[in-house]
Design goal:
The complex is a heterodimer. By secondary structure, chain A is α/β, with parallel strands linked by helices. Chain A has a domain at 97-170. Chain A is 32% helix and 21% strand. In chain A, the strands form 2 sheets. In chain A, strands 6-7-8-3-9-10-12-11 form an 8-stranded mixed β-sheet, sandwiched between helices. The longest helix of chain A has 17 residues, at 185-201. Chain B is 30% helix and 22% strand. Chain B has helices spanning 58-65, 88-95, 105-108, 115-125, 132-145, 162-174, 192-209, 220-226, 244-249, 254-262; strands at 9-22, 28-42, 47-51, 73-78, 81-82, 98-101, 180-184, 212-216, 229-234, 237-243, 318-319. Chain B has a 7-stranded mixed β-sheet, sandwiched between helices. Chain B has a 4-stranded antiparallel β-sheet with strand order 2-1-4-5. In chain B, strand 1 (9-22) and strand 2 form a beta hairpin. The longest helix of chain B is centred in the middle third of the chain and has 18 residues, at 192-209. The chains are: A alpha/beta, B alpha/beta. Chains A and B meet through helix 8, helix 9, helix 10 and helix 11 of A and helix 7, helix 8 and helix 10 of B.
């Protein structure tokens, strides 16, 4: 039984020329205990998807879809019921811990706040539990740091505090939106290794949102690649990196420096053009204007997701038998 | 690679400190040693990568090299000419030869100046164009060189994407045909496919104009791919420098080793070890001896007392570590 099923989710944001389809009908699931990564460039809708799961899309609107979480449709819940899920069943950490923490409240009080609200603990009991959690996330001197204010902590330490808050009510799902993007590589490695340990200890399911494919390769079990509001490919991490199928995924992977087998030239392979304006995306496949392999249907018809393996999907006509006679022929086009 | 004996940029013992105010209305102040005696050479047409964690002093060093901020102590020569003893008019005339590209192209471009104004400004300051019409033509050429259409000229920075704005910043930097460009995290704020486009543009301009770059970056994969030599900084000091291929094949300083180990690869399932313990200490309160010793897995008693000198264990490499350079203090 999946922990979370996102079905045909559509999120619109108001724009100057009518609604912008930030998320345009995406479907994926999270199995208990796994880490699913959503990757893509800025504006592809990956963060909007995460916020939609928490139903925090103001001023946007979730216009369609279902969000089945622990067998309940989150979109059918009242705001009061939803508040019991946020923070308690679904924890979250963001890119900017400094912006998420209250600057005038001591660390210990911020961690115990969630415990008092969601678990009904008393002040003292909550504080003791908060200090214990700060120890769990390996904050040095948890007792002393509980009395510190956020500005006295480094970015890495603040992210540990955010993890302590996120885990305080033993959620089943952790949404981590670019959790290490603002950190140095050394601190990133520490936080990711902590996240892997917490995942085991708390039996967490993680939705990891990032643009860093290196982070994905090392931390995700399965990956969904988003482009202009749509999921273009979903696959287990090893398969995605070993044999990417969608032309966009292939371009994304190739553009990373330090790829094994990259040529002696210092030029990096690039994708031509740029991401389309979300207010007026191209018709058909949204990637077709930048795609070197486009053919007749791409400019007019929206590609549906085609299963290309037991746990793989790709939304590309190259893999759709109705358009291309043999999908193996298309796969054979891989360089 | 063309490597004349005399480096294009030659820094010796550069130092820079800042005053930081503390306490009630900044009543107390302390000095922060951002750059602490750095030697650095950049040769003609060479790309040198400068890496290190936030607060290591790499951006300050970049700004010192192009004289955006004043040097406290040390020597700085450009093409053999002493940059520190020049009077202001001489320095101004010299400036067209070294330029800088910033990470935040939005913050570094005047929002109320059109692209033509921004890219043309250095041409006017250095009197490289005689008329408005000439400026117009020259700006159009520069925009073409960075892959922008001439229709961009009358537009303003906010109308462009991050990648396009970075192209405008690059056009401005190369307007006066410099010989040396400091690129301070030029692609850090961009998505990977856009990063690749901008890096390729920088490489293309280097080939065409024979530019030398100091590329300040925190992405070690990118630095490995693009740079000839790499300099690693920690708490204001250079701890290691080496040709890029050698540094990545065999990093000698424990800090470089940790930095490389912390960089995620691209092979699924291959885990990065949690790297080094702890975080970089505050530059306001640097440790005694080797600045890295509190985090160093192999530190010895002498590391806490004596600061290691930057010595050459082999041709072309320099390392500041007692364990790599034993018995040579």
């Amino acid at each position: 039984m999946s922990l979370l099923q996102v079905q045909n989710l559509e999120v619109h944001y108001p724009g100057p020329d009518g609604p912008v389809r930030a998320v345009d009908g995406i479907t994926f699931r999270l199995e208990p205990g796994e880490t699913f990564a959503l990757v893509g460039e800025s504006g592809c809708g990956k963060s909007a998807t995460a916020m939609a799961i928490l139903r925090l899309v103001e001023p946007g609107r979730i216009v369609a879809g279902r969000l089945l979480f622990e067998q309940r449709d989150l979109l059918q819940l009242s705001e009061k019921e939803m508040r019991k899920i946020r923070g308690a069943r679904i924890g979250m950490v963001f890119q900017e811990p400094a912006a998420a923490l209250n600057p005038v409240m001591r660390i210990g009080s911020q961690v115990s706040e969630a415990l008092r609200i969601h678990k009904g603990l008393g002040r003292r009991e909550a504080f003791r539990e908060a200090v214990r959690l700060l120890g769990v996330v390996a904050l040095p001197d948890p007792e002393g740091q509980a009395r510190a204010y956020p500005h006295e902590l480094s970015g890495g330490m603040m992210q540990r505090v955010m993890l302590a808050i996120a885990l305080s009510c033993s959620p089943s799902l952790l949404i981590a939106d670019e959790p290490t993007t603002a950190l140095d590589v050394t601190i990133q490695a520490q936080i990711l290794s902590l996240l892997r340990r917490l995942r085991r200890e708390f039996r967490l399911t993680v939705l990891l949102i990032t643009h860093d494919l290196g982070v994905v390769a090392e931390n995700a079990d399965r990956v969904g690649v988003m482009y202009a509001g749509r999921l273009v490919e979903q696959a287990p991490a090893a398969e995605l990196f070993g044999a990417p199928q969608h032309p966009y995924t292939r371009g994304l992977l190739r553009s990373m420096p330090g790829q094994p087998g990259s040529s002696a030239s210092r030029r990096l392979p690039t994708l031509p053009g740029s991401v389309p304006d979300a207010a007026c995306p191209p018709p058909g496949c949204r990637f077709h204007p930048r795609c070197a392999e486009r053919f007749e249907p791409c400019a007019t018809v929206q590609p549906a997701e085609t299963a290309t393996g037991p746990d793989r999907n790709v939304a590309c006509f190259l893999f759709d038998e109705r358009y291309r006679p043999s999908p193996s022929g298309a796969a054979g086009r891989e360089e | 690679m063309n490597r004349p004996d005399r480096p294009l940029v030659e820094a010796r013992g550069l130092r820079k400190s800042f005053l930081r105010r503390f306490g009630f209305f900044g009543a107390r102040q302390r000095s922060l040693q951002a750059v602490d005696g750095v030697d650095l050479d950049v040769h003609e047409s060479e790309t040198v990568g400068l890496v290190g964690e936030s607060g290591s002093g790499k951006s300050t060093l970049g700004r010192l090299l192009v004289r955006l901020i004043d040097v406290d102590a040390g020597e700085l020569r450009f093409d053999g000419v002493d940059l520190l003893s020049m009077n202001p008019p001489e320095l101004r005339a010299m400036r067209r030869q070294f330029q800088i590209v910033f990470q935040d192209s939005y913050g570094s471009l005047n929002p109320r100046m059109s692209v033509e104004g921004a890219v043309g400004e250095p041409l006017v300051i250095h009197k490289l164009v005689a008329s408005r019409a000439e400026r117009h033509e020259r700006v159009a050429e520069l925009l073409a060189q960075v892959g922008l259409d001439r229709s961009a000229m009358s537009r303003y920075p906010h109308e462009f994407s991050g990648g396009q704005r970075q192209r405008i910043g690059i056009a401005r930097a190369i307007a006066c045909s410099p010989r040396f460009v400091v690129a301070d995290e030029p692609v850090s704020a961009l998505d990977p496919p856009v990063q690749a486009q901008i890096i390729n543009l920088l490489l293309e301009l280097q080939e065409r104009m024979g530019l030398a770059y100091l590329l300040i970056a925190h992405d070690l994969r990118l630095v490995e791919h693009v740079c000839d030599r790499v300099v690693v900084m920690y708490l204001g000091r250079v701890v290691e420098q080496a040709p890029a291929a050698e540094l990545y094949r065999e990093p000698l300083h424990p800090y470089t080793q940790a930095l490389l180990a912390s960089t995620p690869g691209t092979r699924p399932g291959e885990l990065t070890p949690s790297g080094i313990l702890g975080e970089m200490p505050s530059p306001l309160d640097p440790p005694s001896g080797c600045p890295f010793h509190p985090r160093c897995p192999v530190a010895e008693p002498r590391c806490t007392r004596e600061a290691p000198a930057l010595l050459a264990p082999s041709e072309g490499r320099r390392v500041a570590c007692h364990l790599v350079n034993p018995n040579r203090a």
